[in-house]
Predict the structure of Carbon monoxide dehydrogenase.
Amino acid sequence: MSKAYEKNTITEDGQLLLKKAERDQIETVWDRYEAQLPQCGYCEMGLSCRVCVMGPCRVDPFGEGPQKGVCGADGDIIVARNLCRMIAAGAAAHSDHGRDLVEVLAEVAEGRAPGYEIKDMEKLKRVAAEYNIETEGKDPLKIAGELAHAMQEDFGTRKKELTLVKTAPEKRQELWKKIGVMPRGIDREISETMHRTHMGVDNGWQSLLLHGIRNALSDGWGGSMIATEVSDILFGTPAPKLTAANVGVLKEDQVNIVVHGHNPVVSEMIMLACQSPEMLKLAEEKGAKGINLAGVCCTGNELLMRHGVPMAGNHLVSELVLTTGAVEMMIVDYQCIMPSMGDVAACYHTRMISTSDKARFPGMTHREFHPDNARELAKELVTAAIENFENRGEVYIPVEPVNAIGGFSVETIVAALGGTPQPLIDAIAAGKIRGAVGVVGCNNPKIKHDYGHVTLTKRLIENDILVVDTGCAAIANAKAGFKVADAIEFAGPGLKEICGSLGIPPVLHMGSCVDNARILVLASALAKAMKTDISDLPLAAAAPEWYSEKAVSIGVYTVASGVYTVLGPMPPITGSMNVVRLLTDGLNDVVGAAFGVEPDPEKAAVLIRRHIEEKRENLGLPFMKL
Ligand code: BF8
Ligand code: SF4
């Protein structure tokens, strides 16, 4: 174990590869973070504005310098505007990803997407029914076409409200209507945020933030939910699968291909190509024992959930995965792919391929995937990766992989419980499980890599709180060994008993970041079964190491759905005490939940436990005072 790198990451593979990176003179995200210090205080507080060219402006937080921008906007307005723009960008990222899937579904319906098909017929019919599409005796491709069309309308402006919003508990829907945040078209809310935050439009910090909530809801109950549902329809609804995590999943004697990004449209085709006998034969001819596909970040989570494809690492180690020298090819789509990746790869034999018409990167070869060429292009790329095997130099894979189980869709969780959420509710009522928490989100060099996720998760499960996770948090917890049946040894006695009897780990991998929609569906199912609202349940969420605009959108729709959410890093809002008070307290009176901010996961665990016990007390369940 390397002492010098312990301050950056708790992971053994991360520490050892950081040492290797230093030896190879590779600059990493941590080096660049340090070079940026001290970061701009105005920006950190949300008090700088470059919305127009009368600026850029800043408001002095100490009251000595300017208190208003050139246009007259004060700190409250500037902070609220900046936050809303973060929500819009995050909602756009998730929702545009959803749109890409809907477009593939439409192409499948037209027979123009060779290699793609409808994998989950039951889900196709169930989701179609939500859209009031008649399915009885109808050809599945016709249903798929009509569903794709109806979903496309959700993106536009033809409806008063998004279709899937009606799957939320009724009380929640009524509340959203009452306070005027019922999301309409997905694109419409994003576009309206950009309009409202233009100079001289919405200058009420409260009304801005209220629209920010509506925009975020259009992501959670719209774009992200559509992304998840259509991914399940096209690629199958996940069920528990054995897999493995950390850089040790790379294989010295095989061709290693790593997929990085978010959209399964590309990675699923790569996986199929990797499995084809023709490709396996070619790999053998080139002296490799096989083709090993691994994931990084959320496209990795998508493959892990559905096929058990192993996970090489999460966001902050994406550069380090390349320093193993073992990766023949990395294929990326979009989101969270550092623009430095091409530079790192240039020091090894790794070939870097970008695939999305909307995402280019320095040092990568651009090979664009579209539904009509995806199958053939995937084969071409895998062939090129195999041919690159002989160009390998030194290989350094310093750790053994950790086993994990992934693939807990709501469907499989409910099935494991015997077809209804009732046993889970009974366990919560009896106090064997005190509550459930979604630990989600990214890595961020401001927090020691994986420390936030792993520490918080450990404290929660040892206090009988069930953890569900997604995104980079889920990868961190897989690497920490929390996702095997034996991990019940880390759990408190009640959680251990329940998970032990069901044969499931105490930490359930629910997928990628768009799959936070699955957590909404689960929370909604619990609330409906208990005939109450989500905000009454002993639930919470946490994003201990978040960094991205997507995470801001997720946080806001989670709180707006009634779930207390604790953030690790502070969002850029401290320049306005009005905004801080609203988000951390005032929202309780508006949506029945608010944010907490606590970078220390030990303290975050206490905040969450206290919240859960309070909710239990309110429900008349046995509770303990903390
Ligand atoms: O969508 S958790 S670092 S990879 S943003 Fe990105 Fe954050 Fe990872 Fe996935 Ni989500
Ligand atoms: Fe400055 Fe106002 Fe323009 Fe922002 S919108 S840059 S505060 S003048």
Observations:
- The mean pLDDT is 97.
- The radius of gyration is 24 Å.
- The first helix runs from residue 12 to 23.
